[in-house]
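Hey team,

Filing this mostly as a record. A colleague (T.K.) asked me to run one chain through the structure pipeline before their review meeting, and I want the input and output archived in the tracker in case anyone asks later how it was produced. No errors, nothing strange. Just documentation.

Input sequence:
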Amino acid sequence: MVATHGAAADVQALIADGKLQPALDQVEVDLAQNKSDVTLQFLKGLVLARMNRLDQAAEIFQHITEEHPELPEPFNNLAVVHAARGDFEAAQKALQMAINTHPSYATAHENLGDIYAKMASQAYNHALQLDEANSSAKAKLAMIDDLFPVPASNNGAGKTALAAAAPTNPGQPAGGVAAPAPAQPQPQAQLQPQPQPQPAQPVSAPQPVAVDTAPEPEPVTEKPAPVPAQVSSEPELRAAVESWAKVWSERDVAAYLAAYGAEFAPADGTSRAQWEQTRRARLQQSSFIRVDLASMKVVEHGPEHAQISFDQHYQSDAFSDDVRKILIMKKVGADWKIVEETVR
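Output structure:
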């Protein structure tokens, strides 16, 4: 559901004026009436980021990407927050998700270039033991101000509000937008004197024209070959996730670890080797494990990337919990591999 014109416009106006605390107060009042409004959620995250409350902003943008993975803007702003906290690898992944969702999204491409430049600068400075406080090496990232931008109005305002419903009264504007000015009368064109008719000229008899009786061949138009429709990989993705849960339940260590791709990095920051050692020990020490999945949602980002979210119930002889889990998967050869795993 998208916020009404007035609610979003009021918050955006306060942000544009630099009145961040009033903007936060207003968006929280609006969200209390409509908690599921993605535009208001987005604006709250934007305000918190501007206030340098980065952890809260990241939590909001992360939530939006999980509920609406088809939108590139929340991924972009999540990347900006990660970069502000110095986590450039997480920023890179978020921007890549934005690009996978919307390949022509120019802002994400530009920000990704800045992230790569910053990562290269850090590696270079570390190798040469240079001053890491060099401000010229800092990346500049653009925060997106509008989740659903619309064309600017004719009143010259710098920021545009979200689209409002059409007014029910044709003479009354919607959402407090000024009604269009009445049309100005146009000056009447001056009458010009009509030209006097000229006497008709004698017309000579037409000369016979030779006609080619052979018909012209019709041009041959080649019909383009039909473009094959992209085949959904959802059945394969669901099967891969269900197989991962099955081998986990069976405590098949080799098959469980093989479900993760070479790019996978543990969310807690440990090394891949340490993570594998911990997972191997837990699977082998448990006398039984049961993993049940429910409410699975698959969102494909092109032919080689996808996001799968689901409710996970885990139970073993020593521990049990219920979480909402998100897997980022990548096509590697003929198989789908897990490259990112997060828990809500």
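Quick notes for T.K.: The chain has two domains: 5-137, 234-343. Residues 20 and 47 are 6 Å apart (CA to CA).
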